[in-house]
Design a protein that fits this description.
With 320 residues, the chain is α/β, with parallel strands linked by helices. The protein is built from twelve helices and 13 strands. It has helices spanning 46-54, 75-82, 94-97, 104-115, 120-133, 139-144, 152-165, 182-199, 210-216, 234-239, 244-251, 312-319; strands spanning 2-15, 18-31, 35-39, 62-64, 67-70, 73-74, 87-90, 170-174, 202-207, 219-224, 227-233, 300-301, 309-310. Strand 12 (300-301) and strand 13 form a beta hairpin. Helix 4 packs across helix 5 and helix 4 (104-115) runs parallel beside helix 7 (152-165). The structure holds adenosine-5'-triphosphate and magnesium ion (MG). Magnesium ion is lined by residues 46-47.
Length: 320
C-alpha cells in the first residue's frame, strides 16, 4: 500500500522576472511502513520535496502536480492541516530545532498540548514514554534539562520524540545524522529503523550518502537537477541501476574504484535551475546519450516498485 504517491511534481520559484525550476516533474512513491531514501547531490531538490509535502514552500512558489496523494487524500487540499499532524520533520541540526532557553519538559509539553487534548499528568506520562521510545535512558532527567545540557545524539533523540508526540505517521528525516559523529549517527539510523518496525511508521530519509541508502532504506529515489531519474527497491537499485546517472553515481563511490585508480568523476556540470530543458536533463553529461536525447526524453518504462528510468542503459547492455 502506498502512503504517498507523487507524479510529475514541479515547483517554480520566482526570481527577478524569471523562474527557478526547483523541481521538474518529480515522481515519488512511498510504501507504508518502509524507509524510502531520497538521494542526490547538493541542490538537486531534496529539501524542496520535503517542503512541498509539509506545505512550507517559500512565498510565491508555484506548485504543479499530476498527482499528489497522501493516504488516499489529495495533498493540495489538505497540506496545511496535515503538516505536523500526519507528517513531521526531523531536521539535520537538532540544536537549531530545539529552543535553547526552554527545558525539554516545556518543549515536549508544547508539542503534546498542540496535538492532543490530554490533562497535564497524562501529557507528562506521554512525554516520558516518547523519550524512552527513542532510547533515552533517563527520561525524567532529560525532561529537566535544557538542550545545551544534552549531547548532539541525545538532542536528536528528543527531536525524534517530538515527532512521535505529534502522532505523525510519515517522518521526513532531512540528513538526520549530518551533525552527529559516525557512531552516534549509526545509532540514530538504527533507532529510526526500530521505530518503523515497532510502530509501523513510514520514513522519508533524505541523504546524499549512498551508504545510508544501502544500510537503512527499503527503497529509494535518485534525484538529479530537480528531477527523479530512477526509483525502486534498494537492493535492485544498487545491484542493477538502469539510469546512466545512477550508474555514474555508484561508479563514483570509493569502493568501486580500482586500487590506486581514479574515482569515476562525471564530466560536465549540473544544469542551472533557471535553464529550460528539452529532452533528458542528464543528456549533456551522459556517456550513453544519443543525438535525440537532448530533443526529447528517451523512452522510459515502469518496472518493479517504481521506475521511470531511461532504458538506454539497458539497451546498451543488450548491444554489448
Ligand atoms: N528559498 C529558495 N529560494 C530560491 N531558490 C531556492 C530556495 N531554496 C532552494 N532553492 C533552489 O531550489 C533547488 C533545490 O534546492 P534544495 O534545497 O531542495 O536542494 P537539496 O537537494 O536539499 O540540497 P542540499 O543537499 O544542499 O541540502 C536549488 O536549485 C536551489 O538553489
Ligand atoms: Mg537540503
Amino acid at each position: 500500500m502506498n502512503l504517498l504517491e507523487i507524479r510529475n511534481l514541479s515547483v517554480d520559484l520566482p526570481l527577478e522576472g524569471t523562474a527557478i525550476h526547483a523541481l521538474r516533474r518529480v515522481n515519488l512513491l512511498i510504501q507504508r511502513g518502509t524507509i524510502h531514501g531520497l538521494i542526490g547531490e547538493s541542490g538537486c531538490g531534496k529539501t524542496m520535496i520535503a517542503m512541498s509535502l509539509l506545505g512550507l514552500l517559500p512565498r510565491g512558489a508555484r506548485i504543479m502536480a499530476e498527482q499528489f496523494v497522501f493516504d488516499g487524500m489529495a495533498l493540495s487540499d489538505v497540506a496545511g492541516s496535515l503538516r505536523g499532524r500526519r507528517i513531521a520533520l526531523i531536521s539535520q541540526d537538532p540544536a537549531a530545532a530545539l529552543n535553547p532557553v526552554l527545558t525539554i519538559r516545556r518543549q515536549m509539553d508544547d508539542v503534546l498540548r498542540a496535538h492532543h487534548a490530554l490533562p497535564r499528568p497524562a501529557r507528562h506520562a506521554q512525554a516520558v514514554e516518547f523519550l524512552a521510545a527513542t532510547g533515552l535512558a533517563d527520561p525524567e532527567r532529560v525532561l529537566r534539562s535544557y538542550p545545551h545540557q544534552l549531547s548532539g545524539g541525545m538532542q536528536q533523540r528528543v527531536v525524534i520524540a517530538q515527532a512521535l508526540a505529534t502522532g505523525a505517521d510519515l517522518l521526513i528525516a532531512d540528513e538526520p545524522t549530518t551533525a552527529l559523529d559516525v557512531t552516534v549517527g549509526a545509532q540514530v539510523l538504527a533507532l529510526l529503523r526500530q521505530l518503523v518496525t515497532e510502530r509501523g511508521l513510514t520514513i522519508l530519509m533524505i541523504t546524499h550518502d549512498m551508504d545510508v541508502v544501502a544500510e537503512v532504506c527499503d527503497s529509494a529515489t535518485v534525484l538529479y537537477a530537480g528531477t527523479s531519474v530512477e526509483g525502486g527497491a534498494t537492493a535492485e537499485l544498487l545491484a542493477n541501476p538502469r539510469h546512466p546517472y545512477t550508474r555514474a553515481l555508484l561508479a563514483a563511490l570509493p569502493d568501486a574504484a580500482p586500487r590506486g585508480g581514479r574515482l569515476a568523476a562525471i564530466e560536465g556540470r549540473i544544469p542551472s535551475p533557471v535553464e529550460t530543458i528539452t529532452g533528458c536533463i542528464f543528456a549533456p553529461r551522459c556517456m550513453l546519450a544519443r543525438s535525440g536525447c537532448t530533443l526529447t526524453s528517451p523512452p522510459t518504462h515502469l518496472a518493479g516498485l517504481q521506475s521511470w528510468d531511461c532504458v538506454i542503459g539497458e539497451e546498451a547492455d543488450v548491444d554489448a
